[in-house]
Design a protein that fits this description.
Elements (H helix, E strand, L loop, with lengths): L10 E5 L7 E5 H11 L4 H13 L9 E3 L5 H13 L1
Parallel strand pairs: 2-3
Antiparallel strand pairs: 1-2
Helix pairs in contact: 1-2
């Protein structure tokens, strides 16, 4: 499995999908925290680093997954509207 160097403490599990090998899942918030503490980045610098250098990188079908602890705003809004109609 492919790993992001320096982020072992942010690993929260292993993901699987059809026709691919397993991939590591990282906690986005923990990755931000690691960069702030270890590399003395600001929150904004850590977010930008992760967005550009990690989330923006494709290294094949087993590219690790970055999990955020919140659903995107549009998804939450859409889900709420669907439930209100039921």
């Amino acid at each position: 499995m492919l790993k992001w160097d320096g982020f072992d403490e942010a690993i929260i599990g292993v993901g699987e999908r059809c026709s691919t090998d397993s991939m590591i899942i990282y906690d986005h918030s923990k990755m931000v925290e690691i960069l702030i503490v270890r590399d003395e980045m600001t929150f904004e610098e850590a977010e930008e680093y992760i967005d550009f250098n990690i989330i923006g990188a494709w290294i094949g079908d087993t590219t690790p997954i970055i999990m955020r602890d919140q659903m995107p705003y549009d998804y939450c809004t859409t889900t709420k509207k669907i439930k209100e109609k039921e």
